[in-house]
């Protein structure tokens, strides 16, 4: 019996949200990305060691950390393995180590020394600043940073300067708009803060925005032209003065039988990622498509307006904006990912199809996390395999994970792996990693922001 498009889309949605499908996360996930030199192979191989015995090395050239992945796996006798070493880029190791060091000034100073050996100037400075924030009197950090620079940092960093932190808190709590406007420039000048008065004005507006989970929120920016709704997630401890990563999730589904409606929505998509989002400090937004599929022309201005709205209302780190989607959303990610690859630090097209724009993604060094179920009967994995091969031969920065027995679902272990890689990815501009957070509040307000949200 032939299945209608509506039925297929319903099956896809049910599979994506099923709780019975996801396998348990792999215990003891190995360190990803190793360079392995093998006798008989001209160039060192970049991939993941997913298994090892006394005699054999199990190697995944597609760099997935899932040991159950079968597709493309290589096995090498250890007698042929000449050497192996970490293949993780130094700037990514830095971000991983920075998270692990937390507020330990000694560890952070050690990380700064590690950066100095590798000539990571910006990363070293960030590590030293974090060390001083943890302990403003840390001798090694003060010495390494120089007195002039450390004094300036401690004066203008609100987490280090209690007086500044109190002044900013009082400013944000002041309900008198005129009083805030009069004192903003003086506050910036007194503490030599690295921004203009509109930064503070945006921060105040942002402090009035809701946190938590908000479903079916209507678009405001260009809302008179675009009738879009979205699900928004903002961590409860969101700080309007601190740049925060943004995750954009595209839902699955498809068109209704008459082609006029859309099956699937942002509310359903949020459920796929909610568990990991609650563990991580991300703002997340899930638009509902105006028309299926996502590549339909009406969705393009919708996505652009939505991202602009979130970046105006919330303090977003423009170097940490990520795009992902499952099923129809996977196709959509292949569409919007390459098209706006200069805006995404990474993309994750999952259980969809595409592979267009691989060259653009490579040229902008945009990381791609690609996933598909090996036994997916709704959207076969052939296209994803072809894309993975193309990225492997083309030199893209990517991961391809293919799991057996996962069908068209989106296992929790996949979402976890995706976010684990996102944590260490930053936007690259002209091949240069943007190490420092770059706030969306820094840019001068544009015409649309003033028109729809009022003058700052």
Q: Can you tell me about this structure?
A:
Strands 6-7-11-8-12-13-14-15 form an eight-stranded mixed β-sheet, with helices on both faces. The chain has a five-stranded antiparallel β-sheet with strand order 4-3-2-1-5, with no helix packed on it. Helix 12 links the parallel strand 12 (316-326) and strand 13 (346-350). It has helices at residues 5-17, 90-101, 105-117, 121-134, 139-145, 147-156, 162-173, 177-191, 197-207, 266-277, 299-313, 328-339, 358-363, 382-394, 412-422, 447-453; strands spanning 34-38, 45-52, 56-60, 74-77, 81-86, 212-218, 229-234, 244-250, 254-255, 262-263, 282-287, 316-326, 346-350, 367-373, 398-403, 428-429, 432-433. The model is unreliable at 1-8 and 14-30 (pLDDT under 50). 40% of the residues lie in helices and 20% in strands. It contains 16 helices and 17 strands. With 456 residues, it is an alpha/beta fold. It is flat and about 70 Å long.
Nutshell version of this structure?
This protein is an alpha/beta fold and 456 residues long. It has helices at residues 5-17, 90-101, 105-117, 121-134, 139-145, 147-156, 162-173, 177-191, 197-207, 266-277, 299-313, 328-339, 358-363, 382-394, 412-422, 447-453; strands spanning 34-38, 45-52, 56-60, 74-77, 81-86, 212-218, 229-234, 244-250, 254-255, 262-263, 282-287, 316-326, 346-350, 367-373, 398-403, 428-429, 432-433.
